[in-house]
Amino acid sequence: MLNSKEIVGKIRKQLKSNIEKRRLKPGLAVILAGKNPGCLVYVKLKQIAAEQLGIRFEKFFFPSTASPRKIIGLIKKINKNKNIHGLIVQIPLPKKINPDLLVRNISPEKDVDGFGPKTKFISPVHQAVLKLMEQSKKPFKNKKAVILGNSAIFTQSLKNILVKKGIKTEILYPWKNKLNANKTKKADFLIAALNKPNFVKPSMIKRTAVVIDVGYNRIKGKPVGDVDPKVRSKTPWLSPVPGGIGPLTVVYLLKNVYLAAKKQNIC
User: What is the Cα–Cα distance from 127 to 198, expressed in whole angstroms?
Assistant: First the structure.
């Protein structure tokens, strides 16, 4: 079974120690547009975790009708703020707002989400996916991975990382084209990042495949992933929602903020 609790605990402990020893005062800013339930939850988790580690946290909310120009204006202002070392735009965004456009305007030194073309950081969610894949102790070389996604900003950079690990990787966008289940059944590693509750069914995977659930949805107030829990009938290697990718992503984000503060040499 995949479990991030122990990994998160170790990273948090080391991170808190490093921040205190160096007497750093790292700062993180989060920009959120609209009221996506998953986004609101993740922003809250990031705020709580940041404050526990002594990281200054600032959040900026925009309505779903906000113009990209207005958000970019704030991004450029934050880029110049020496008290903020990391800046992220929480995705997914409202359909009218292009995430690529916003991310490209974030200073590479502050792009702690790691999605910009010149970023200095590895994306926290990609680090989390890779860590849980490694936890399965299954070999990577010459294996097959399938990424189910709804955002090229997430999928393409993850594919690049997996290919460098020797994993043959394919990206599928079920919201664009009809999903070919034969392709998912061939995957040794299946990563679902669709924000479609219980989308991945047992019939879509092969036995003992490693299934990483990046999705976060809410049904009747309860958190639900993109993978149907019945998938456990086919494999024990399924990351849970909640408690899987989420906490790992948050702690890797805060680690990037710490590294950003250290590089910017602000004490």
Answer: 24
Q: Tell me if residue 31 falls in helix, strand or coil.
A: strand
Alpha-carbon distance of 250 to 81, in angstroms, equals 23
Q: At what angle do helices 124-135 and 245-263 cross, to 10 degrees?
A: 130
Are residues 107 and 141 both part of a single domain? no
Number of domains in the chain: 2
Domain housing 133? 124-246
Structure-token pair, residue 254: 């805060």
**What's at 154, amino acid-wise?**
F
> Is this structure's pTM higher than 0.85?
yes
Q: How many angstroms separate the CA atoms of 132 and 125, rounded?
A: 11
Render pLDDT for 39-98 as a digit per residue (tens, 0 to 9).
Answer: 888 899 899 999 999 999 999 999 999 999 999 999 999 999 999 999 999 988 888 899
* Calpha distance 79→175 (Å, rounded): 34
Tell me whether residue 265 is in a domain. no
